[in-house]
Design goal:
Helix 5 (79-85) runs antiparallel to helix 6. The protein contains 11 helices and no strands. With 191 residues, the protein is mostly helical. The protein has 2 domains: 1-67, Ankyrin repeat-containing domain (Serine Threonine Protein Phosphatase 5, Tetratricopeptide repeat, Alpha Horseshoe); 80-89 and 101-191, Ankyrin repeat-containing domain (Serine Threonine Protein Phosphatase 5, Tetratricopeptide repeat). Residues 168-174 have low confidence and may be disordered. 49% of the residues lie in helices and 0% in strands. The chain has helices at residues 13-19, 23-31, 46-52, 56-64, 79-85, 89-97, 112-118, 122-130, 145-151, 155-161, 176-190.
């Protein structure tokens, strides 16, 4: 099989090696001339695939060989988008240290924080926020990460984004936003 031959999904042997976190094969393929920039039919490089499959050593190696930490798939997702979506906190930390754009948007307007909120990746959400992720940015449907967290019942991530939702010591939940809306509606009804 030629080193850059593709299957019916346009995956190369390098994609498969990255998917299986087989660093030795990844190293040998690249040393033998494999195209590290090859993308599958979804626009995913071996780096995207390694992130999805939690292959941290492979991620580190591919970046050391020149892979762009901000390369985008067909739907505009960067490796950090995938780390956020699949709750790969250590990989996300590494990608951020390599210059990953935290607030990059995919074709749906999702930032990494949107995807963390949607998939209840609370640890990644905490990491993103601590690295200045925008919390009030809206996707193509006008939703913020907090609204997506609510929509997908991602309670832990909602609490990371909005600390006022954390249960108090007596067990009561505090929803300042709802309380504020209630007070406003009372005042409007008085007039």
């Amino acid at each position: 099989m030629p080193i850059n031959e593709r299957d019916n999904n346009s995956k190369t042997p390098l994609h498969f090696a990255a998917e299986n976190n087989n660093l030795e094969i990844v190293e040998n393929l690249i040393a033998s001339g494999a195209n590290i920039y090859a993308k599958d039919k979804y626009g995913c490089s071996a780096l995207h695939i390694a992130v999805i499959n939690n292959a941290k050593e492979t991620v580190e190696f591919l970046i050391s060989k020149g892979m762009n930490v901000n390369s985008k798939s067909e739907d505009g997702k960067t490796p950090l988008h995938y780390a956020s979506e699949f709750n790969r906190v250590e990989i996300a930390r590494y990608l951020i240290s390599c210059g990953a754009h935290i607030n990059a948007k995919d074709k749906y307007g999702y930032t990494c924080l949107h995807l963390a909120a949607k998939s209840n990746s609370s640890d990644v959400a905490r990491l993103l926020i601590s690295n200045r992720s925008y919390i009030n940015v809206r996707d193509c449907n006008g939703l913020t990460p907090l609204q997506l967290a609510d929509q997908y019942k991602s309670t832990k991530t909602a609490e990371v984004i909005d600390p006022s939702r954390v249960k108090s010591s007596d067990g009561c939940e505090i929803f300042c936003g709802l309380l504020f809306k209630f007070i406003i509606s009372l005042l409007e009804n008085k007039q």
